[in-house]
Amino acid sequence: MSIDLTNPSDNLTSITSHGFTYNPSTGALIGDASRDPESRIRALLFPHLIPTLIKGKRAQKQAEKEARRLTKKWISAQHKHYGLPFKATAKVDDLRASLIAALEARKLKSPPAAVQEILKGLEEEYKRKNAAHLAAVNKTRHEAFAALTDPIDAANYNFKLFLRRYFLDSTGRLDIKKAPAAMDLCRVRDRLQLAAAAKEIPGLHVDDAHDDGAHDGPFYNILVVGKDQKSVRDIARIKVEEIKRERRQADIRRELEVASLKERFEREKEQTIKQLDDDFRPLMESHFALVKSLPKPSTTASVANAKGTFHIRCPEIEGSWPDTCYDGLTLVIRDDPERTNTSGGPCLRGDFEFGVLSGIMHFWLPGEDWQTDYDGPDEDSSDEEYEFQSLNKKRRKPTASRGPVSKKRAVAADSRKLHFLWRGRESGEGEIQVDYQNTNKGCIEFRDNTFTVFDATWSADLLGDDIKFCGHKTSASGKGNGIRWGELGEKAYRRAEISRW
After folding, report:
1. How far apart are CA 224 and CA 230, in angstroms?
2. Start-to-end Cα distance in the chain
3. Rg of the chain in Å (alpha carbons)
4. What is the dihedral of CA 168, 172, 176, 179, to 10 degrees?
């Protein structure tokens, strides 16, 4: 017969009586419901009390889940556990009210004497019915323990038998002749349980949290047990010194690893920037060829000439995230299909791939101010176009459901400057960079009316404020990333967050 020594009660016969089923591993059950303590019953009946009555986030979430699914079966079982009268045909709301009344009458502190007598009878019947099996388990356990010669193995197997073998006499008292002066038990798996049992034995000394005499730590996870206090303390101090030495060595290894990683990062950073510089040369040739092919720039700037593909250099990104820059940084300025300008001028957007970040820029046309309230298209309704006036007029919305329209301040038009708001994702996890405070903004300013070179600043939580970058046009056209403004908003962020969980 195979016997499970880890939990021998799993192999034994459960006892059923008066509606209860008893087994030491589960306790007394009504169906599959155990008796819950008064505080948990109160929390399940009144879920708003869960944070104060139940400790631990995981336990609280489990309780909230159970509170939403309180069943008649569970409520009836608690009535039975606490000896409360009820009718099996009663409705769940009536049973709930009955349990609340018992709770308020303080009848759920402990089971009544009649129920306790039933439970006591179940335990006695269990022992009688399974006496032979329990004796076999006990015999097998003792035989297995007797074969163990290493004290650590013995303590890991059964700490009670371990204490009896090395420290106690037949009556359970400390055996001075047998007990060692001190024994190092730092490698025992369940040191807390063994230490608690050893502390209950008069005359036995235990050091399980040596603190160098300082009550505020640092503490060391050790366990030394013996009959001689001085010997116990001496070995404890030796173990503490060993732990200190190991910690110092671990700190040195960690510092060396960090230094090595920093050195490697700086080396890769230099290599990446050099590679970017090398890659920049042929791109600049394309840029100069494009500039040369353009007609003489007009004295009047036209923002429509800003459209095209720009190669970007951003020292902050290249220096902090060099591994995301291998394919270069690009910005494609193009017409925005999601917006229309009621004045007939162009609406521009930028599709950017900036290594660690990628996404969309919505540009303000000359005469607009990036500080003006910006509503944009509603999330998840990006199939609708929205309209705005480009020069100091009220913006109009296509539907009245979008609320009142804000007024823009009159600002001096700067014909080569474009302000923008942006939305995007972080390239590693793909997490949407939600702009709760309207801080995802920036400005690009072209150097002349050819609109082929610009200097810019922008702000991002991931990077910081007023991060500088520059762009050189390498093509008069470019393909966008196909992302829509509504795909990178707060609602999309929440949906992605739920799917991750």
Report:
1. 11
2. 46
3. 37
4. 10
- Which pLDDT tens digit goes with each residue over 136-189? 888 888 999 999 999 999 999 999 999 999 999 989 899 999 999 999 999 998
The whole-angstrom separation of Cα 326 and Cα 267 is 15
Q: How far apart are CA 399 and CA 158, in angstroms?
A: 75
How does pLDDT run across 216-251, given as a tens digit for each residue? 455 677 899 999 999 999 999 998 888 889 889 988
Condensed to tens digits (0 to 9), the pLDDT of residues 438-477 reads 789 999 999 888 899 999 999 998 888 999 999 999 888 8
Reported as half-sphere exposure (CB side, CA atoms, 13 A), residue 124 has a value of 6
- Classify strands 386-388 and 339-341 as parallel, antiparallel or unpaired: parallel
Q: Is 337 helix (H, G, I), strand (E, B) or coil?
A: coil
* Contact by Cβ (8 Å): 21, 14: yes
User: How many residues can be counted in the chain?
Assistant: 501
Cβ-Cβ contacts under 8 Å for 62 (sequence gap 6 or more)? none
User: Cβ atoms within 10 A of the Cβ of 170, count?
Assistant: 7
State how far the Cα of 368 lies from the Cα of 407, in Å rounded to an integer. Answer: 11
Distance CA 198, CA 207 (A): 10
The H-assigned helical ranges of 82-158 are: 92-104, 113-129, 131-146, 151-157
Cβ-based neighbours of 463, under 8 Å, separated by 6 or more: 316, 317, 320, 356, 357
The encoded tokens of residue 200 equal 């209950």
Q: Please answer whether residues 392 and 329 qualify as being in contact, where contact means their C-beta atoms are separated by less than 8 angstroms.
A: no
Count of beta carbons in the 10 Å neighbourhood of residue 216: 6
pTM of structure:
0.43
Distances in whole angstroms, Cα of residue 7 to Cα of each of 24, 125, 185, 325:
10, 19, 25, 57
